[in-house]
Amino acid sequence: MDNPVVVRIAEVAADAGSATLRFNFRGVGRSTGAYGGGTGEQADLAAVVAHLRSLLSPDAPVIAAGYSFGSLVAAHVAAGGGVDAVALVAPPLGLGDTRPLPELPTPMPVLIVVGENDEYCPAEVVERLRAERPTATLNVIDGANHFFFGKLYPLGEAFTAWLAPTLARLRAGQARRSGGAG
User: Fold this and answer.
1) SS3 assignment, position 85
2) Which candidate, 7, 20, 85, 94, has a CA 20 to 30 Å from the CA of 168?
3) pTM, whole model, 2 decimals?
4) Sequence-separated (6 or more) residues with CB below 8 Å from residue 132
5) What pLDDT tens digit does each residue of the chain (182 aa) get?
6) If residue 167 lies in a helix (H) or strand (E), which one and from where to where?
7) Which domains does the chain carry?
8) Coil, strand or helix: which one is 88?
């Protein structure tokens, strides 16, 4: 939760007026438990989302943002309908043992941000993502690697550019569903 990429995404969300919550998956840092092979971590995120929803107003949109392994976890939770939108930063889809991204509900807003030189999500994988997910916003950060060294500002700009209209669209849709004026 203290990774510079995760911190940058949380800063941008907070600057946009969103409540944010960062956490470590089981067995990371000072958290309890042990690595759960992805399934346990999905349960962690689902529990965090449930807790966050209990603290927010019922019509507040919840967006999951994950980095690297966390992006895969966020995608799987989003596929189950657990959140309103999802931002996937540097999904490590170029690793042979990594599960592919699941199908995500339509019309869920999806952001995928990768570095141009991402060692774990190479250009051919990015092009496959572009073809497989035409409704997702795909942003490739020039000169960035998987860790976004020296590229946290452009990463934040990409997230901001997607977040503002996404929040507005989600809030407008929820206001219509609840009968509110927007």
Assistant:
1) strand
2) 7
3) 0.90
4) none
5) 889 999 999 999 999 989 899 887 777 777 777 676 778 899 999 999 999 999 999 889 999 999 999 999 999 999 999 899 999 999 999 886 556 788 888 889 999 999 999 999 988 888 888 888 889 999 999 999 999 999 999 999 999 999 999 999 998 887 666 665 54
6) helix 152-178
7) 4-178 (3.40.50.1820)
8) strand
